[in-house]
What does this fold into?
Amino acid sequence: MSNQNYVFVIDTNQKPLNPCKPGVARSLLKAKKAAVFRRYPFTIILNKAVEDTPKPMQLKFDPGSKITGIALLQEAQVIWIAELTHRGQQIKKALSDRKGSRRSRRNRHTRYRQSRWLNRRNKKKGWLAPSLKHRVLTIITWVTRLMKLAPIAGISMELVRFDTQLMQDNSISGVEYQQGELAGYEVREYLLEKWGRQCIYCGKTDTPLEVEHIHPKSKGGSDRVSNLTLACNACNVAKGNQDIRDFLKGKTELLNKILSQAKQPLKDAAAVNSTRWALFNALKQTGLPVETGSGGKTKYNRIRLNLQKSHAIDAACVGDIDNLEIMTNQPLLIKATGHGNRQMCGTNKHGFPIRHRSRVQIHKGFQTGDIIKAVVTKGKRIGSYVGRVLCRATGSFDISTKNERLEGISYKYCKAIHLHDGYAYCF
It folds into this structure.
């Protein structure tokens, strides 16, 4: 198994071809039969046209609230994987800060511009909050990019993380499916996420956990997921068929916490469920066939094939699969950073202006967000660095690498290797 992703290949007419191994790409570049087309994801362009028909590939997604796994498969071989980190929380925080600043100005009766649009009423059908819509748009951006670099013939996505309807009513489908191996994975995976993968009574982790009825089934308790939790064997045996209020007598704080959490849905699962159909419909507009699967089935496939847990590997396990051959274990880490903001006047915590931003975005030939390679030959920072640059008009830049942030690097040592596109990359 190679440690690196395969390299995307396009011909001189930018027609996507079969990806190749990194060693083959190095040989083509060394022989000057190809040139680097883009760094992230690494793509080479041949200096001739190719008439051969490439083998079709399947693009798979495991959409998450914070991170989405991406995998490209060709004939049951996983040849390219990535993990896309969303910025939904940053968007929510920015909107909350703006809301607080405007409310502060109104309360102080200072100069305040009235609203120019009535865009907060009569929301259209399918409307999503900006922090949720961002997830859909970001995934579609990467679908579009990868379709230009690889011969993708179909898309697979995890449409629902948990089959909640199935867990609430186990008579909606065939008995063979309900009592088969997959049904248990749906419930257990939901409970593991909801209760933090620990015993709710003693807090033990890294120990076998059992499904526990909060209100005992022998006393009228149901099998609904709102009545289920997780406990270690010792606590499960100690509780027996006692009511939870009797078992936790004298532990009011823990009792109230458990009863409160039992009624709450998963916040992250709610975010994924809010965007799943919008993403599914957007993927269908690409014109490619879209296959769907559930989170429980993804986990079942991963455990059946004895694969490690990661967002990218989960993406490869989405849908109906018989076998997988993992050709790479080094995913490209993609982080959505945005394209800056439109706020021209910076304010302090009280809402008063303290600085004004220049409209000039390019300084010394660089723009904030470019990925650069800096070879420093003088001073305290001697060495070679690759990272995302933050530009200043003075020519003194900051560089954010995977492990640290370097300040005061002169533009003279910098060379752009990937222009700003709203994302940061590392391995």
Remarks:
- The mean pLDDT is 83.
- DSSP finds twelve helices and 22 strands in the chain.
- The domain at 164-267 is CATH 1.10.30 (DNA Binding (I), subunit A).
